[in-house]
Design brief:
The chain is built from five helices and no strands. By secondary structure, the chain is an all-alpha fold.
């Protein structure tokens, strides 16, 4: 009989984090001079949903957007932290 491990992951929604991600996405998109539709066509990512701060975003999606906007993942996340300093981990 195979051994099975069940892992229950509880989804949590951090509105402040989602708002920071939304602001960074919008700023990067506007800086690049592209529309939400352009991003959707180029990447398959519906950035309009992200910019509304209503849907959780996977790290894979954030990485894909970082590549699209030609910045590192760490730079993207750093910009999010700059939007809301309460998102920074205490050192």
């Amino acid at each position: 009989m195979p051994f099975t491990i069940r892992c229950i992951v509880r989804k949590t929604k951090n509105i402040r984090l989602l708002q920071g991600i939304a602001l960074v996405c919008k700023e990067l998109r506007e800086k690049k001079g592209v529309t939400q539709e352009d991003v959707k066509t180029d990447t398959g990512i519906h950035i309009g949903r992200i910019e509304q701060s209503r849907f959780d975003v996977t790290i894979g999606t954030i990485f894909a957007l970082s590549v699209y906007f030609e910045i590192s993942l760490s730079e993207f996340l750093s910009r999010v932290e700059q939007k809301d300093t309460t998102l920074r981990a205490e050192e």
